[in-house]
Amino acid sequence: GDRQHRAAAKSEETATMSRGGFSPYDFNGGTVLAIAGPDFAVIAADTRMSTGYSILSRNMSKMNQIGPRTIMASSGCQTDVVTLASQLKIKHQMYQHRTGKPMSTPSVAQMLSTTLYYKRFFPYYAFNVLAGVADGKGAVYSYDAIGSFERVPFSATGSGQSYVVPLLDNILCHKNRQDAPPDLTVDNVVKIVKEAFVGAGERDIYTGDKVEILVITDGAIDKQVFNLKKD
User: pLDDT band for position 3 (50/70/90)?
Assistant: First the structure.
C-alpha cells in the first residue's frame, strides 16, 4: 500500500513538472529565404519577432554577415540565433588571423554545419539559410537543426516556410509547367522575393512588418527594405 502510494505521488509530481516545467527554447517566428542567381544571390528575412500571440519587436533583423560576401539568415529562438552568430563570427575572426584572408562562402557553409553538429545533443533552436557567391556563381545552402546541409537553387525556412516553398518551387524550379522559365535577373529575383513575403504575411501571423532584402554580388552587398502588413 505504501509503495503504491509513493508511486502515485511520484507520477503526480512528474505530471505537475511537465505541465508547468521550464523550457530552454522559445519560438520567435519569422520567415527567411534565399535564391541563387547566375552570378549573385538574394537573401531575405522579415523583421517581426514574436512569442505566442505577442509581437516583441517589429524591427529585429534576422541577418548576420559572416565574412565579406556571406550572409546567414535565421529564424527560431532569438537567443540561440544570437549565440550561434557570435560563435561563427569569432571562428571567422580566428581563421582570418591564422590565414591572413577571409573565409569563402563554401568554407563558411561547412563551418556552420560543424558548429550546429557540435551542439547536436542540445541543439541551437535556429533554422538557417546561407547565401553568398562561390567561384563567381550565386550559392545558397539549406540546413537542418543539427548541421546537415546541401547547396540548393533556393531555400526557405521559418514560420512561413510552407507558404513560400511551393511558390518558389513553381516559379524557380518550374515544376509541372509548360511556359518559358523566368529570366533570373536581380530585379526579377527581388520581385519574386517580395511576392513570396506578401503571400506569407497574408497567412502567417509571425511574418510581417518589413522584409530586409540583400543582393550579394562579387563586388558588394546591396540592401533594400520592403514594407509588409503590420497586423
Answer: low
Residues near 223 by beta carbon (within 8 Å), at least 6 away in sequence = 212, 213, 214, 215
C-alpha–C-alpha distance, residues 98 and 111, integer Å: 15
Q: Which of 7-21, 23-37, 124-138, 149-163 has the lowest mean pLDDT?
A: 7-21
| Spatial contact of 85 and 65, defined as CB atoms under 8 Å apart | no
Rounded CA-CA distance 88/83 in Å is 9
Using DSSP, how many helices (H) and how many strands (E) does the chain show?
A: 5, 12
- Chain Cα centroid distance, residue 198: 18
- At residue 85, does pLDDT exceed 50? yes
Nearest to 44 by CA among 52, 57, 35, 53: 35
Per-position DSSP letters for 139-199, written without gaps between them: EEEEE-TTS-EEEESEEEEETTHHHHHHHHHHHTS-TT--SPPPP--HHHHHHHHHHHHHH
- β-strands 149-152, 154-158: how paired? unpaired
Distance between CA atoms of 162 and 179, rounded to whole angstroms? 24
The pLDDT of residue 92: 98
As a whole number, mean pLDDT of residues 45-64 equals: 97
